[in-house]
């Protein structure tokens, strides 16, 4: 994903195949000695193969010009944007960052601050929200500034972070969605199996981040900054040049886009056929329709999240592949606008999830109302308060089965001879029942089965899906 991308990664090929740092220095020295204009010696660098351009040329970059003898004004101003266009792009990117950061932080607060929201699915949503908020906060605006000015202002250490963290965050985001898809699949297709415990969920989340760090590590290892006359560049200098760079990012696209979307497509197709095309296996409780409706809502919400992610990132991946294969596209007059638009769309994927949760889930909606209750037009009703309170019954630690281990019945006995005095005796009969592995009891199986069905079906909870 072209380091998501650094706007001047056209320098990725520095020191590439057939060239080394001495060629770059020699070219610079030759250009300076000849008294060439800045545009002319930069053009010479591109032509000698020291600078390649998989991303759009930055403002003032003459690589987009067909001839070095062209007037300086045409070379340096080809990608300089008018003030009004810069203002519009700044507003667009600013909105993405504000909504993504604050929206996802509120999602994290809603889940962690309310016990009723602490489910397996929601823990993965916390991981997804953290990754999205981090990428919006630490990558989006920095990369936007770099794309506009073609000048790296943030130092060598942040250059490494800028090239490393976005791939890590995207990997964590999409594999959190994949984990949710697999969890929904197991809960709906095979509901009798125990759900992930809190410890297992933490292990899965930790494993996702470790794999993300390993995948993105080469971006950190080969990141470089180059101080040139009039500008400083931040780029990834691969040992074997642009070809190695291209192969790496094709692998990244497969791992963080194609493969997880394939897994989620298969799982949600099977789940959708089960929920909308037939009965849920093993689910014959009295609250069947209520659970079915709740499960459909959650699955529908997650499908929308995945589809929006896929749509937002598709143009960016297509852009990278096409500009890497067809280098002449980087010389197109409007390529910078195409880049800014595709990158904005990709980054906007970080801001849609909180909006989706608020619109499609009543508990998240209640949480957002509580977060914005200080606004004069936001009213938190008593119903909203109840939505986030802990339920009366709690699932066991190893599954979401509501276990009933003790049942009491009260028998009232009245003596007909004492009808006038209405004296009645109250007798309490207590029946202890040992829970069995299937959620029933060893005695009075019919009564236990009725009680279990009234509370919920095995290994599922309406709270889990509401």
TrEMBL record:
<feature type="transmembrane region" description="Helical">
    <location>
        <begin position="246"/>
        <end position="277"/>
    </location>
</feature>
<dbReference type="InterPro" id="IPR017452">
    <property type="entry name" value="GPCR_Rhodpsn_7TM"/>
</dbReference>
<feature type="transmembrane region" description="Helical">
    <location>
        <begin position="298"/>
        <end position="326"/>
    </location>
</feature>
<dbReference type="InterPro" id="IPR001681">
    <property type="entry name" value="Neurokn_rcpt"/>
</dbReference>
<keyword id="KW-1003">Cell membrane</keyword>
<feature type="compositionally biased region" description="Low complexity">
    <location>
        <begin position="441"/>
        <end position="457"/>
    </location>
</feature>
<keyword id="KW-0449">Lipoprotein</keyword>
<dbReference type="InterPro" id="IPR000276">
    <property type="entry name" value="GPCR_Rhodpsn"/>
</dbReference>
<dbReference type="Pfam" id="PF00001">
    <property type="entry name" value="7tm_1"/>
</dbReference>
<keyword id="KW-1015">Disulfide bond</keyword>
<protein>
    <recommendedName>
        <fullName>Neuromedin-K receptor</fullName>
    </recommendedName>
</protein>
<keyword id="KW-0297">G-protein coupled receptor</keyword>
<feature type="transmembrane region" description="Helical">
    <location>
        <begin position="161"/>
        <end position="182"/>
    </location>
</feature>
<keyword id="KW-0472">Membrane</keyword>
<comment type="similarity">
    <text>Belongs to the G-protein coupled receptor 1 family.</text>
</comment>
<keyword id="KW-1133">Transmembrane helix</keyword>
<keyword id="KW-0325">Glycoprotein</keyword>
<feature type="transmembrane region" description="Helical">
    <location>
        <begin position="338"/>
        <end position="360"/>
    </location>
</feature>
<feature type="region of interest" description="Disordered">
    <location>
        <begin position="425"/>
        <end position="466"/>
    </location>
</feature>
<keyword id="KW-0675">Receptor</keyword>
<keyword id="KW-0812">Transmembrane</keyword>
<feature type="transmembrane region" description="Helical">
    <location>
        <begin position="86"/>
        <end position="112"/>
    </location>
</feature>
<keyword id="KW-0564">Palmitate</keyword>
<feature type="transmembrane region" description="Helical">
    <location>
        <begin position="124"/>
        <end position="149"/>
    </location>
</feature>
<dbReference type="InterPro" id="IPR001013">
    <property type="entry name" value="NK3_rcpt"/>
</dbReference>
<feature type="transmembrane region" description="Helical">
    <location>
        <begin position="203"/>
        <end position="222"/>
    </location>
</feature>
<keyword id="KW-0807">Transducer</keyword>
<feature type="domain" description="G-protein coupled receptors family 1 profile">
    <location>
        <begin position="103"/>
        <end position="357"/>
    </location>
</feature>
């Amino acid at each position: 994903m072209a380091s998501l991308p650094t706007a001047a990664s056209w320098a990725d090929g520095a020191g590439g195949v057939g060239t080394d740092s001495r060629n770059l220095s020699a070219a610079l020295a030759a250009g300076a000695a000849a008294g060439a204009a800045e545009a002319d010696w930069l053009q010479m660098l591109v032509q000698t193969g020291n600078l390649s351009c998989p991303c759009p040329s930055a403002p003032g970059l003459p690589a987009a010009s067909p001839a070095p003898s062209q007037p300086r004004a045409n070379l340096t101003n080809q990608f300089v944007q008018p003030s009004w266009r810069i203002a519009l792009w700044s507003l667009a990117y600013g909105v993405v960052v504000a909504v993504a950061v604050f929206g996802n932080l509120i999602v994290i607060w809603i889940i962690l601050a309310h016990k009723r929201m602490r489910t397996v699915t929601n823990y993965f949503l916390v991981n997804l929200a953290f990754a999205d908020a981090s990428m919006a906060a630490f990558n989006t605006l920095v990369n936007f500034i770099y794309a506009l000015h073609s000048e790296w202002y943030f130092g060598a250490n942040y250059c490494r972070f800028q090239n490393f963290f976005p791939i890590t965050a995207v990997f964590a985001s999409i594999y959190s969605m994949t984990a949710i898809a697999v969890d929904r699949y197991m809960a709906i297709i095979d509901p009798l199996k125990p759900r992930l415990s809190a410890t297992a969920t933490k292990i899965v989340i930790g494993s996702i981040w470790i794999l993300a760090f390993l995948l993105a590590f080469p971006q950190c290892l080969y990141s470089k900054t180059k101080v040139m006359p009039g500008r400083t560049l931040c780029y990834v200098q691969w040992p074997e040049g642009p070809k190695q760079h291209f192969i790496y990012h094709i692998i990244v696209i497969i791992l963080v886009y194609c493969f997880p979307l394939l897994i989620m497509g298969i799982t949600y197709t099977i789940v959708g056929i089960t929920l909308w095309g037939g009965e849920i296996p093993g689910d014959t409780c009295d609250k069947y329709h209520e659970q079915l409706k709740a499960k459909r809502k959650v699955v529908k919400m997650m499908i929308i999240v995945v589809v929006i992610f896929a749509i937002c990132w598709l143009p960016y991946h297509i852009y990278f592949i096409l500009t890497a294969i067809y280098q002449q596209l980087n010389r197109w007059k409007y390529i910078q606008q195409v880049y800014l638009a595709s990158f904005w769309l990709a980054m906007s994927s970080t801001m849609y999830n909180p909006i989706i949760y608020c619109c499609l889930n009543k508990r998240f909606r209640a949480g957002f109302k509580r977060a914005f209750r200080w606004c004069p037009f936001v009213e938190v009703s008593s119903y909203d308060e109840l939505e986030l309170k802990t339920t009366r019954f709690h699932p066991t630690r190893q599954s979401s089965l509501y276990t009933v281990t003790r049942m009491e019945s009260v028998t009232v006995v009245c003596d007909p001879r004492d009808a006038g005095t209405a004296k009645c005796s109250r007798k309490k009969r207590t029946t202890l029942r040992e829970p069995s592995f299937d959620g029933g009891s060893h005695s009075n199986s019919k009564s236990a089965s009725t009680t279990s069905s009234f509370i919920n079906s095995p290994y599922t909870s309406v709270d889990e899906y509401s």
